[in-house]
Design a protein that fits this description.
The complex is a heterodimer of chains A (about 140) and B (about 280).
Chain A lengths: L1 H30 L3 H6 L5 H10 L34 H4 L3 H9 L21 H11 L3
Helix pairs in contact in A: 3-6, 5-6
Chain B lengths: L3 H17 L3 H15 L19 H10 L6 H12 L8 H5 L10 E3 L4 E3 L1 H11 L12 H10 L14 H15 L9 H7 L4 E2 L2 E2 L12 E3 H4 L5 E2 L1 H11 L10 H13 L9 E3 L1
Parallel strand pairs in B: 5-7
Antiparallel strand pairs in B: 1-2, 3-4, 5-6
Helix pairs in contact in B: 4-7, 8-12
């Protein structure tokens, strides 16, 4: 009987985990949609707004050069390029928010021949866009 | 002592400026040496295949070769050959003009008497004008591209060899070199940023071609262009597209900027054989 109970518990746990994880991945797909899905988002969070700005080809287009290392990746969404370093553990790598902001705003201040566009200086992104993208980057 | 200082300054300036300018021969060695080091298994001749020559593109090369079993550009090439051979109203043909032109591998060529850089496109229109025909105004696609193919394909397999020894030619060469290495546009990219420093790397799913070998396959048949119904394009059409992509204003085809750039690229390609036309994505 005790054995049966344990088995039952395991089964229940397994069901809970399966349902839970599929629920989590659904939530994830909703959180980080494709470029088209971004337009359809209602009341996006700041992190979602940052993701959408960073994948939009007319805005950040970070994926042109960077891979983003995230817990899960939207299914079927193409990976990024390999010209810049992977975007991973951003909070650990850029504990100083100002340094990250400056790198996006105008990377040529650190390296004059940088191949990263000066997003702020050349008005590709607004100051607000950059702050929003930082919020997203700090979440991955 | 007072007289000495200006002399010293002049000497210093002279030595500085000679350090800044390098000769085309040194430039070729540096440029080709960079790619020899970056893509060790790719020979100079193989750069005629453009991005298809790069190991990073190896998995897609098979598709490209398959496509060339029945090349999509064939009908255009045949049409161009007919246009090339069709006599003008005065009975002469393009071949009569081309008899006075240098080999396609020597283009763009510099005419010292007039201080002018000649491109194949420019010489085709000059030929039309001299024979009382209407010049071609669309210098990016269509008939002009077909005629350039008809001329250049006659030299397929021969190696690029452009003479820039004349000071006048060198002046234009320097302008082209400056264009190639200068950052431009809202995205702040130079030609070299993508096609030298990032060559073989991925922009999303696309592989960036090596700067070495650019121009040797032009005019090209581009799948992207074919979707809009204008599959053939001259090298200046491609330059314009590149400039737009970095969000800069494109210059006019056959204007001084792109002619100088074409000269610089042609010189960097010294030794790469012609392979005209080519198919590119």
């Amino acid at each position: 009987m005790l054995r049966f109970k344990m088995t039952l518990n395991t089964v229940v746990l397994a069901i809970v985990m399966t349902v839970g994880s599929s629920f989590a991945s659904n939530v994830f797909a909703e959180s980080f949609p494709s470029e088209k899905g971004c337009k359809a988002l209602k009341n996006p969070t700041t992190v979602q707004k940052g993701w959408c700005l960073s994948v939009n080809r007319r805005k950040g287009n970070c994926l042109a050069c960077h891979v983003m290392v995230m817990d899960a990746w939207p299914e079927g969404f193409p990976q990024g390029g390999n010209i810049g370093p992977p975007l991973v553990a951003m909070k650990q790598r850029f504990p100083d928010r100002e340094k990250l902001r400056s790198q996006i705003y105008d990377p040529t201040t650190v390296n004059s021949s940088s191949r990263m566009p000066p997003f702020g200086k050349h008005k590709i992104l607004s100051d607000e866009d950059i702050e929003t993208i930082i919020e997203f980057l700090y979440s991955i | 002592m007072k007289k000495l200082i200006p002399g010293l300054v002049m000497l210093l300036t002279a030595s500085l400026s000679s350090a800044v300018y390098s000769s085309p021969v040194d430039d070729i060695a540096a440029f080709q040496g960079f790619f020899a080091e970056r893509f060790k298994d790719v020979s100079l001749e193989q750069y005629k295949d453009g991005v298809n020559a790069l190991p990073q593109y190896a998995d897609r090369r098979g598709n490209w070769e398959l496509l060339l079993d029945f090349p999509p550009y064939e009908e255009h090439v045949e049409k161009g050959r007919k246009e090339w051979a069709t006599p003008f109203a005065n009975g002469k043909t393009f071949a009569d003009c081309a008899a006075k032109w240098p080999a396609a591998t020597a283009y763009p060529w510099y005419e010292a008497e007039t201080d002018e850089l000649h491109t194949v496109v420019g010489d085709i229109n000059r030929c039309l004008e001299e024979n009382g025909e209407e010049v071609i105004t669309n210098l990016k696609h269509g008939k002009i591209a077909r005629l350039v193919i008809a001329f250049r394909e006659q030299f397929n397999g021969q190696k690029m060899n452009v003479d820039v020894s004349h000071p006048g030619a060198q002046k234009i060469y320097e302008k082209g070199k400056q264009f190639y290495w200068a950052k431009r546009g809202q995205l702040n990219f130079s030609c070299a940023d993508c096609h030298v420093h990032s060559s073989g790397q991925k922009v999303r799913g696309d592989v960036l071609s090596a700067g070495l070998g650019h121009t040797t396959g032009f005019p090209v048949y581009r799948t992207k262009w074919s979707l809009a119904g204008k599959p053939l394009g001259t090298i200046h059409r491609r330059y314009g597209g590149c400039n737009n992509q970095v969000r800069a204003s494109a210059f006019k085809p056959q204007g001084p900027e792109y002619k100088a750039l074409e000269l610089y690229e042609a010189v960097m390609n010294t030794g790469v054989p012609l392979s005209v036309p080519s198919q590119r994505q």
